[in-house]
Design goal:
CATH architecture of the largest domain in chain B: 2-Layer Sandwich
CATH class of the largest domain in chain B: Alpha Beta
Structural class of chain A: alpha+beta
Largest interface: A-B, 21 and 24 residues
Number of helices of chain B: 21
Oligomer: heterodimer
Helix content of chain A: 25-40%
CATH class of the largest domain in chain A: Alpha Beta
Largest sheet of chain A: 5 strands, antiparallel
CATH topology of the largest domain in chain B: Aldehyde Oxidoreductase, domain 4
Mean pLDDT of chain B: 96
Helix content of chain B: 25-40%
Order of helices and strands of chain A: EHEHEEEHHHHHHEEEEEEEEEHHH
CATH architecture of the largest domain in chain A: 2-Layer Sandwich
Number of domains of chain A: 2
CATH topology of the largest domain in chain A: Uridine Diphospho-n-acetylenolpyruvylglucosamine Reductase, domain 3
CATH superfamily of the largest domain in chain B: Aldehyde oxidase/xanthine dehydrogenase, molybdopterin binding domain
Number of strands of chain A: 14
Distance between the termini of chain B: 81 Å
Strand order of the largest sheet of chain A: 4-5-10-6-7
Shape of chain B: globular
Chain lengths: 285, 762
């Protein structure tokens, strides 16, 4: 096995395109585990942590640009990010244990290609856009369009996620993420739900996005959920519509982590609970 | 050395000194199974079956052997056949025909993960490559996983030609039922006729793994003269020695086994898996061989305990007096016979003083890994079912569940359904303590419920040898042969120090290897503190006797004219003359001149083990929208006889409760239709993490065991018995729904709550 740690993403992309079984190493919290379990045996591992742009958080056009290899712990420690995007930071901080938080990244969480990834619904709800570097240059892609199916991404050969852009937030806007796990930590989402919303001065919802994880082959952006909330005061009637929209969007499977019926039920429950947390936070801003 | 002054109470027993093995464990210096290294060692790896059931047509190792760096390969051809012969191992019986086949498959592979071949190579990478080069031709056979399915006519037969034992006349056709057992007391039909209320329920439980954090690991080194050393993580190195010598056809004396520090066993490390393979590979390769299981291998190919189907029927009078109890237990054995169904039957109704009991058990094979002992093997399953029905009985009769149990509690003189009459036992004391506990009286919050259950376990004694050496400076070295899983060394050093009236720190206990001490049965059956404690006391008393002899010699008086009081040897009375008292250290100093080294040795078969009863109280809270149950408060109460080191007794109570909470709520083996295990890892095999548990409170009850010098009862196993029923009872109060299946995972609880709601509407 060959290990490379280039200084630029352009060089990394060239390397990635050069071998059929090359893998990108960011935090390694999925890759190294899969290598040890012999699920993957790449001939080339490309570490992108030496590339500055993957490791930095910066403010850009009123929003934030977060490097793909920024760790969960770094997101949490950022002075401003946590107050603007509490739901996203909370979701990323649910990955693994405290030790894993020192290594795990949102780029890796997305590119690992699991429908149950915690930070992905939060990125989708936030309206995050991924900047991708490939052999043919850079392009932007909405996070909800990156994952196609389990372990299958919309990235082409040699493409690497460089960073995520989170748009500017107005007043009275916030987000939240909840997941259902049978334990209290160290677990994987049976259902994950992220809601991001904005209110006007009167408390009426002016913008909303909801994303569900682990209830379909890929994390979902639930368009009907936005319809349920926008224009409402997020009252019981709106929440009932939201719950129904969440349940209607689910196409889960029965597996070792939960039944289809359970996932659909819980998606509705989490949708309401998450929306209420986001609402509470938005009102305080 | 300042000798202790005798006090009317114990000086050391009942205190909480730091464990002798503590410093090395918290600083990472302690050597566990995988920490042992020998220069030149090879890496051993096991090739495992991808099929749950298949006939092995051929194994071709030529390509693997040809790979550079591969030093040896072993297959079924390297081991001689063993005849069926049952011998006790822990609280289970083993059969060498089956032990051999579990170590390495012969005619068939019987579960996914069954060992088929093993390689030794110069690196892990080469060993893994070699495994891929071994060609095994399988004829895949239909498989059966569930015990009820396995009992049906026409089910795939796991062991060709198996005829059920314990049935007269013997069946003429083979089946997967290895054995039928029955325990009867009185006449249940008559009892049920007298009953005012009868409750009859069926329960299902899933296999759960012991979940020790340290995977199986060993290093084997076979010398050119045929002698061998084995370092392994085990609950019984004499048992490991016996099994390995038997499978390899060696003289026992040629094999020296050293047990490492052990990172949890819970019964699961009473079995050999890789040890015979490592020895055979070492013999073939002429190099030391180290083998370490991955977590996935631990799940697929070691442990767990049985899953089961249980039917229970209990009849009672209106006043709560139970008049009859009946149960049928169907326990999974895994792919070889020997589930713990017999002890399951024996303890099912043990907490009750009953006149009419009938329990029938079936030992059922299926295409799963062979079950291994797990903390009170068999008990948690049957007692969960019985205690759950007793809880329902209490609810039906509108009697407090503790009062109902007090009305029927087993006590001294009660004849247990499995035979013996109980001596002094502490169930009533535990129930009273539960009733009077702050927990039982505390108010409950919204969506919360409280339940309780009792538990019983037999406990055992058995063969035990210790050696206690009085060193020349008056300190002592205690050599013990029962591996220390839960604070044993501390407890034994305390007993030796108490007897000899020396400070605890002056006694250094070690776990000796199999060539340094006489035979020791394994650490299991909650026997180690009881049996090794008894032997330690005997060895300490032998030292006092020998030291008295030395004083007598020096003083030129008869030995019986020397007394040992307040830590000093003195002339027994004025008639014996005036001599300056001597401490043990004084005598140690002159031991060489008065007859040589003083060593206390005790080789005993410890008799008089006494059962331990426990009562647990659990509060649970349900999230009514997701069905998730959380244990919000927990108290474990148990009769310890005498708590030598209360912290380690409490630790056992808490550990058993934590494992029981996992069993109740989240742990299970999940199989697909393909007969393969789907959750061979800690992510999806859900052991509770620390944040899942409340503080586990404990209350130690002490009803001394009259057969032990300090009143000790075994306490390690009983704590895993009550949790499942206590939590089920609490969950019933919290949810309004009674569950009859473990684990009570959120999808099941939510569905049961929804169904109950729909039923009410309809």
């Amino acid at each position: 096995m060959q290990y490379e740690s280039p200084d630029t993403l352009e060089a990394a992309a060239k390397l990635l395109a050069s071998a059929t079984d090359a893998r990108i190493l960011a935090g390694g919290t999925d890759l190294l585990v899969q290598m040890r379990a012999e699920v993957l045996s790449p001939s080339l591992v490309i570490d992108i942590k030496k590339v500055t742009e993957t490791r930095t958080i910066k403010e850009e056009n009123g929003g934030f640009r977060i490097g793909a290899a920024v760790t969960g712990a770094e997101l949490k420690e950022h002075p401003k990010l946590r107050s603007v995007w509490p739901g996203l930071v909370e979701a990323a901080n649910l990955i693994g244990s405290t030790q894993v938080q020192g290594r795990c990244t949102m780029g890796g969480n997305l590119c690992n290609g699991s429908p149950a990834a915690d930070s992905v619904p939060a990125l989708i709800a936030a309206g995050a856009v991924a900047t991708v570097v490939g052999p043919n240059g850079r392009r932007d892609i909405k996070v909800e369009d990156v994952m196609l199916a389990p372990r299958k991404l919309a990235l082409t050969k040699g493409e690497i996620i460089a960073s995520f852009f989170l748009p500017a937030r107005g007043a009275h806007a916030s987000d939240a993420y909840l997941r259902f796990i049978p334990r209290t930590e160290m677990d994987i989402a049976v259902v994950g739900c992220a809601v991001s919303l904005a209110l006007d001065a009167s408390g009426t919802c002016t913008a909303a996005r909801m994303s569900l994880g682990a209830v379909a082959a890929r994390p979902l952006l639930v368009a009907d959920a936005a319809k349920a909330l926008i224009g409402s005061k997020i009252d019981d009637a709106a929440l009932t519509k939201l719950e129904a929209a969440a349940r209607a969007a689910c196409t889960p499977i029965d597996d070792k982590r939960g039944t289809k019926e359970f996932r659909i039920d819980v998606a509705g429950v989490l949708a309401k609970r998450t929306a209420l947390i986001a609402l509470e936070r938005a009102r305080k801003k | 050395m300042q000798e202790r002054v005798k006090s009317p109470k114990f000086d050391i027993i009942g205190t909480r000194p730091i464990r002798p093995d503590g410093a090395d464990k918290v600083t990472g210096r302690a050597k566990f199974g995988a920490d042992h290294k020998i220069a030149g060692q090879l890496v051993g790896k096991v090739l495992r079956s991808p099929h749950p059931h298949a006939r092995i047509k051929s194994i071709n190792i030529a390509k693997a052997l040809a790979l550079a760096g591969v030093k040896a390969v072993v297959t079924r051809e390297d081991f001689k056949e063993q005849s069926p012969e049952f011998i006790p191992a822990g609280e289970m019986l083993v059969n060498y025909r089956d032990v051999l086949r579990n170590v390495l498959a012969r005619e068939k592979v019987l579960y996914e993960g069954h060992a088929v071949a093993a390689v030794a190579a110069t690196s892990e990478t080469i060993a893994r490559q070699a495994l891929k080069l071994i060609e095994v031709a399988y004829e895949v056979l239909p498989h059966v996983i569930n015990e009820v399915e396995a009992m049906k006519p026409g089910a795939p037969i796991v062991e060709d030609g198996m005829i059920t034992a314990g049935v007269t006349p013997p069946p003429t056709t083979p089946s997967n039922v290895a054995k039928r057992v029955e325990f009867t007391l009185g006449d249940v039909a008559k009892g049920f006729k007298d009953a005012d209320v009868i409750i009859e329920r069926e329960f299902n439980t899933k296999p759960v793994h012991q979940g020790y954090i340290e995977p199986h690991a060993c290093v084997a080194s076979v010398s050119e003269d045929g002698t061998a050393e084995l370092w392994t993580t085990t609950q019984g190195h004499w048992i490991a020695r016996a099994h390995c010598a038997k499978l390899l056809g060696w003289d026992i004396t040629k094999l020296r086994v050293t047990s490492s520090e052990i990172g949890g066993g819970f019964g699961g490390k009473t079995v050999v898996y890789m040890e015979p393979l490592a020895l055979a590979l070492s013999q073939k390769s002429h190099r030391p061989v180290k083998m370490v299981m991955s977590r996935e291998e631990v799940f697929r190919a070691s442990g767990p305990t049985s899953g089961a189907n249980i039917w229970v029927k209990i009849g009672a009078k209106k006043d709560g007096r139970i008049v009859a109890g009946e149960a049928i237990l169907k326990y999974q054995a895994g792919c070889f016979q020997g589930s713990p169904v017999q002890p399951g039957c024996m303890c099912a109704f043990a907490p009750y003083d009953l006149e009419n009991v009938k329990v029938v058990g079936y030992d059922v094979l299926s295409n799963r890994p062979k079950v291994a002992a797990y903390r009170a093997p068999g008990g948690p399953i049957s007692e969960y079912a019985v205690e759950s029905v007793v809880d329902e009985l209490a609810a039906t009769l509108k009697i407090d569940p503790i009062e109902l149990r007090l009305k029927n509690a087993a006590k001294e003189g009660t004849k247990a359904a499995y035979g013996p009459k109980f001596g002094p036992v502490g169930l009533v004391e535990c129930l009273e303590a539960a009733k009077n506990s702050p927990h039982w009286k505390a108010p409950l919050g919204k969506n919360q419920g409280r339940g309780m259950a009792s538990g019983f376990w037999f406990n055992i004694g058995g063969e035990t040898t210790v050696s206690l050496q009085l060193n020349e400076d008056g300190t002592l070295t205690l050599m013990v042969g029962t591996p220390d899983i839960g604070g044993l060394r501390a407890s034994l050093a305390m007993m030796a120090a108490e007897e000899l009236k020396v400070p605890y720190a002056k006694v250094r206990p070690i776990i000796a290897d199999t060539s340094s001490l006489g035979y020791n049965f394994l650490t299991g059956g909650s026997r180690a503190t009881f049996s090794s404690g008894m032997a330690t006391v005997e060895a300490a008393r032998s030292i006092i006797k020998q030291a008295s002899g030395r004083a007598a010699k020096l003083w030129e008086i008869p030995e019986d004219a020397v007394s040992f009081e307040n830590g000093e040897f003195r002339p027994a009375g004025d008639n014996a003359g005036k001599h300056k008292p001597m401490t043990l250290a004084d005598i140690a100093k002159v031991a060489g001149k008065t007859g040589g080294s003083i060593v206390g040795y005790a080789a005993i078969s410890a008799q008089g083990a006494a059962p331990s009863f426990g009562v647990h109280i659990a509060d649970t809270e349900v999230d009514p929208e997701t069905g998730k149950l959380t244990v919000t408060r927990y108290t474990a109460i148990q009769d310890a006889g005498k708590a030598i080191h209360p912290s380690y007794v409490e630790g056992q109570f808490q550990g058993g409760a934590a494992q029981g909470i996992g069993w109740a709520l989240s742990e299970e083996y999940i199989y697909g239709a393909d007969g393969k295990l789907q959750n061979a890892g800690f992510l999806d095999y859900r052991i509770p993490v620390a944040s899942d548990l409340p503080m586990l409170d404990t209350i130690i009850i002490e009803v001394p065991n009259p057969r032990h010098p300090y009143g000790v009862r075994g306490i390690g196993e009983t704590p895993i018995i009550p949790p499942m029923a206590a939590i089920a009872a609490a969950a019933c109060k919290a949810t309004g729904v009674r569950m009859f299946e473990l684990p009570m995972s959120p999808p099941k609880v939510l569905k049961a709550m929804k169904d109950a709601k729909a039923g009410k509407k309809a």
